[in-house]
Amino acid sequence: MHDQNGPARIALILRQIAEHNRKGLRQVDVVNLTALDKATVHRVLKALAASGFLATGKDRKRFHLGPLIYELASVTSTPFDLRSICEPFLQSLVRQTDNTVMMSVRDGLDCLCLRRVSGDYPVQVVTVEEGARRPLGVGGGTQVILAALPEAEWRTIVTKNLDRCAERGLSETAVVAAIERIREAGYASQRTATTEAAWTISVALMSSSGRPVASLSVVGITERMTGEREPAILQALQNAKREIEESLSA
């Protein structure tokens, strides 16, 4: 009999591995994170590794995204090829700030890190892996997307993601307050959701129809992101935002 839930299980496992790709996940980790039974996880991991969707590290125990994932990603694009359009602006931001630059897009109730570029400064902050997902509401890069939506829409999303945000230490009050600050300021400037010593400044990229299509963030250690440096970083982000939005509407 055909397993109608098979694709959903595969997608769930791939998403978890993508979110933890830097360190990799053991089979037991995947079982714990997905709540799938051990036999199912073993079968899916084995099949994905055999087909190139996953690869194992030197210890042969931790799974990472495999070469086929990156091959498929290289030919995948949004309707307006967002990644290709944004790439030169991301590289320019890295050169200007020497910090990590990230671009994330909304996917349902999640935010997907579509691109991450690191600068040359010796201490770089890795808060989100490229390809990783976070619930909308966790972190400045997701909150600027919510803040750019109509109020009824973003409040509905926050309500649906309450439990997932709470798992990451964020209450509904905290998320709503952050979104309201962003709506007033026009950008996010705050500590990252995952690293106490890191700071992020984020803006939303808007389509010509007035909908958020992505977020653009600069992330670095707090001392390099705040004080006298913050206005210059924000200006660089806003310049990139303006030029990208012009390219999207061209």
Helix-strand blueprint:
Blueprint: H1 6-19, H2 27-34, H3 38-51, E1 54-56, E2 63-65, H4 67-74, H5 82-97, E3 100-107, E4 110-117, E5 133-135, H6 140-147, H7 151-160, H8 162-167, H9 172-185, E6 188-191, E7 198-206, E8 212-221, H10 229-249
Antiparallel strand pairs: 1-2, 3-4, 3-8, 4-5, 6-7, 7-8
Helix pairs in contact: 2-3, 5-10, 6-9
Summarize it:
The chain is built from 10 helices and 8 strands.
The number of helices is: 10
Top-tier CATH class of the largest domain: Alpha Beta
Secondary-structure content class: alpha+beta
Strand content: 15-25%
Helix content: 40-55%
Please tell me the total number of domains: 2
Q: Quick one: CATH superfamily of the largest domain?
A: GAF domain
Tell me about the largest β-sheet.
Answer: 6 strands, antiparallel
Using only C-alpha atoms, the radius of gyration works out to 19 Å
Which strands sit side by side, in order, in the main sheet? Answer: 5-4-3-8-7-6
The CATH architecture assignment of the largest domain turns out to be 2-Layer Sandwich
CATH topology of the largest domain: Beta-Lactamase
Shape: globular
Residue windows where pLDDT falls under 50 for at least 5 positions: none
Mean of residue pLDDT values: 87
Distance between the termini: 50 Å
